[in-house]
């Protein structure tokens, strides 16, 4: 990895300008015109997820001689893939169960909201298909849903954890680096949140909640990045989270995502407790921090 003195002072600002500029241009342009939630709009949002990785690729070539030695492009320590895959599931189950237990959401085994959405598109679910959906949906989001989402999540993680985290942890330290990356990452989502993503009932409040959500995730994804030495591990965690949260939501009704589910205050409180325990149980060691940027 090149020494900090050799790295252009314009590298990180250029990365941020490209990441925000490309993503916001797509979200405020094609996604807004085509309509959030449409198939075409969703496809453009998938492209948005690739923009931080593209920005990191450009900046590394412009300012760092094409050096990817600290990007984490290696397999890393395999056991952390299980952490990446299963932690979102545990978070989802606890947050949703707690939301239902305290009356902030209603358990919906009949998938009534999903059925209503499908009917709007002239798709009818027979009782047999509904019964199949009760076990096919969890199976799908845990398997191919998590892994397909990981491909697009890699675009984000190559930028946030593979580039920006490595730069800011050198300058500000690991914990403050995680905090700052999470803050930037959350703000990067602002246009699509305002268009109705994740917090459709409260989009403006949703921007603040997304910042808090991303800060918490930044500490976990950053921990995975440094403990495993691989950017592919947080990519799997990111993809699994996106798939599993979406899949788990179809089993609930009468809830507000600003409060219930992993996206709301309940879920963030649950994850904050998890992070506290994780930090005490498996803290980052100096060896893990210093080896994260080395080639395999």
Strand residues, percent: under 5%
> How far apart lie the N and C ends?
13 Å
List low-confidence stretches.
Answer: 1-5
Backbone structural class: mainly alpha
What count of helical segments does DSSP give? 12
Overall domain count: 1
Quaternary organisation of the protein chains? single chain
pLDDT averaged over residues: 91
Order of helices and strands: HHHHEHHHHHHEHH
For the biggest sheet, the summary is: 2 strands, antiparallel
Spatially, the strands of the biggest sheet line up as 1-2
What is Rg? 19 Å
- Helical content (DSSP H or I, runs of 4+): over 70%
Let me know the number of strands: 2
Gross geometry:
globular
Topology, please?
Layout: H1 11-34, H2 39-48, H3 51-63, H4 79-101, E1 106-107, H5 112-120, H6 127-172, H7 174-188, H8 190-194, H9 203-228, H10 232-249, E2 252-253, H11 265-281, H12 286-291
Antiparallel strand pairs: 1-2
Helix pairs in contact: 1-2, 1-3, 3-6, 4-9, 4-10, 4-11, 6-7, 6-10, 7-9, 9-10, 9-11
Quick summary of this structure?
The protein has 296 residues and is mainly α. It has helices at residues 11-34, 39-48, 51-63, 79-101, 112-120, 127-172, 174-188, 190-194, 203-228, 232-249, 265-281, 286-291, and strands at residues 106-107, 252-253. The protein has one domain.
Offer a few descriptive terms.
mainly alpha, disordered N terminus, 2 strands
Provide structural commentary.
The protein is mainly alpha-helical and about 300 residues long. The chain has one domain. Helix content is about 70%, strand content about 0%. It contains twelve helices and two strands; from the N terminus they run H-H-H-H-E-H-H-H-H-H-H-E-H-H. The chain has a two-stranded antiparallel ribbon with strand order 1-2. Helix 1 (about 10-35) packs antiparallel against helix 3 (about 50-65) and helix 6 (about 125-170) packs antiparallel against helix 10. The chain is globular. The two termini are about 15 Å apart.
